[in-house]
Amino acid sequence: MLLCLCACGSSAANDEVASPSTIPETETSTTVSADEVETESVPEEQAEPVIKYLPSRIITDSFTFYYDERIEYDEKGLTAHEFNYDQDENLIGESTVSRISDTGRFLDYESIGYDYEGNVNSKNIHTSSEDGSSSEWIAYDGNDVLQFKVVTEYDEYGNVSKSYNYDKDGNQTYYSESYIEYDDQNRRVFSADKSDYVESENYTGYSSYTTYEYKDGKTYITNYYSDSTSTTSDEGTTITYSGTVTPSYWQYTEYEYDENGNTTAEHIYSKFSESDEWNLDTEVTYEYIAIEIQ
Fold it and tell me: pLDDT tens digits, residue range 216-273?
């Protein structure tokens, strides 16, 4: 069931507007031009508020885990609180979010997490570059002791292109890189990834890649894995693999929508060989509230 909390303000078009007073006729009256008559000013029409439909609850149920997140927003439609529940409706964690600044493509924020007893168990600070091309996430435990840091770079569409992980001593522990191609609707059609722990010497190129197809309202994803090397052109549009690359995982997603075009459910099916039957792997449901943004 969708939760709709629409606060509808009165429209200025329905407000009563006073008309100019009529000038009484007398024997000595003279003709008065319209420019000389002061009329009562008419208030300008108020701008219509913008309605944003935002998820108030996200439930993910699969064979491996259950996740229930409930979200509250501030008057600007930005996340203010997040609450996490287990399958028995027990509160197992929550966080409050305070905005530091609004720069570039992303918002900077500080998030404080609490366990089910209300004790602080984490603090995360997220800051972005002014042009939105990179961000930094610093994680602390409940005692403000640094745990790790993640530096992320983004492409022109806001998708992650590179990510670097550092431990509490500043040592780089993990690296990942993504290459993405888009169609004329800015949808992914191809992505390639390489990632490994820094101490490993096993990645010489992209270790996996994924293709995307869109048809009949469904998104089909096929994942390929390989130990091959790769090269890119100067324009960054071509990737060449050496060795044998075979698909190892197939997945497609069915979507359901409400009357406002919001996704209300995702049904994710998968299989591990082309001859297998499709199996329902994960279901995600969304509930929304309507936020009035002035």
Answer: 889 999 988 765 555 554 445 455 544 456 788 899 999 999 999 999 999 999 999 8
> DSSP label at 10?
P
The residue among 7, 23, 1 whose CA lies nearest residue 290 is 7
In the chain, the amino acid numbered 59 is I
Convert 7-24 to b/e letters by CB count within 10 Å (16 or more is b).
eeeeeeeeeeeeeeeeee
**Per-residue model confidence as pLDDT tens digits over 102-143:** 766 678 989 999 888 888 999 999 999 888 899 999 999 999
pLDDT, tens digit (0-9, with 9 covering 90-100), for 185-228: 999 998 888 777 655 444 446 667 889 999 988 999 998 876 55
Rounded CA separation 55/257 (Å): 13
Specify the 3-state DSSP secondary structure of 18: coil
Q: Which of 79, 27, 28, 29 is nearest to 54 (CA)?
A: 79
CB 94 within 8 A of CB 85: no
Cβ–Cβ < 8 Å for 227, 240: no
Q: Please choose, from the candidates 237, 245, 224, 137, the residue with its C-alpha nearest in 3D space to the C-alpha of residue 180.
A: 237
pTM for the model = 0.65
Please state the three-class secondary structure of 208-237 as a single string. Answer: EEEEEEEECCEEEEEEEECCCCEEECCCCC
Residue 110: phi and psi, rounded to 5, are -125, 130
